[in-house]
Amino acid sequence: MHDHAGPAQAEGCGHVPAAIARAEQLCRERALHFTKLRHDVLLAVAETARPMGAYDIAERLSGPDRRVAAVSVYRALDFLTENGLVHRIASRNAFVSCAHEHDAGEGLVFLICRSCGGIDETTSPEIEAGLGRTLERAGFRPASRILEVEGECGACHERHAQASR
Ligand SMILES: [Zn+2]
Ligand SMILES: [Zn+2]
């Protein structure tokens, strides 16, 4: 589990270089091309603590002498998602980078703070086991095992509690 991805912690906490290093290693191992665009998209997502949409990423990567289309960003995001380097947050239609190791099929729980927009990614063996039994009973084959829980993170809760004191 990595640190809570609060908005103030985006840079300088080791998350960004770790995400890029992991992507480089993974692409080497699987003989995949870590193209400049894939690199840049991952960097943009990793640098931002909040989930980013494809259009935000395209805008961020585009400049006076470079025009990046959202469709290219989507293709890069597909690649990064398939390889477990970023995760899609369905309720936001946005993406966050994953800097820690877990198996591709492992159940993930995203804790999404409505106040600061921060996202914390965790894995839970208890939920994973329970979900597995539920799916089996229903005869349901999941395409993904990602749960999203919206609410208020610990830091925001603390801040609000102090403000009302
Ligand atoms: Zn992850
Ligand atoms: Zn928060």
Structural overview:
With 165 residues, the chain is an alpha+beta fold. It has one domain (7-163): Winged helix-like DNA-binding domain superfamily/Winged helix DNA-binding domain (Arc Repressor Mutant, subunit A, Orthogonal Bundle), CATH 1.10.10. The protein is built from 6 helices and 5 strands. Strand 1 and strand 2 form a beta hairpin. The radius of gyration is 17 Å and the shape is globular. It starts with 14 loop residues before the first helix and ends with a helix. Residues 1-12 have low confidence and may be disordered. Bound molecules: zinc ion (2 copies). One zinc ion is lined by residues 87, 98, 102, 108, 121.
Write a compact overview of the structure shown.
This protein has helices at residues 15-29, 36-47, 54-61, 70-82, 125-138, 154-163, and strands at residues 86-89, 94-97, 108-113, 119-123, 146-151. With 165 residues, the protein is α+β, with helices and mostly antiparallel strands. The protein has a 3-stranded mixed β-sheet with strand order 4-3-5. It has a two-stranded antiparallel sheet with strand order 1-2.
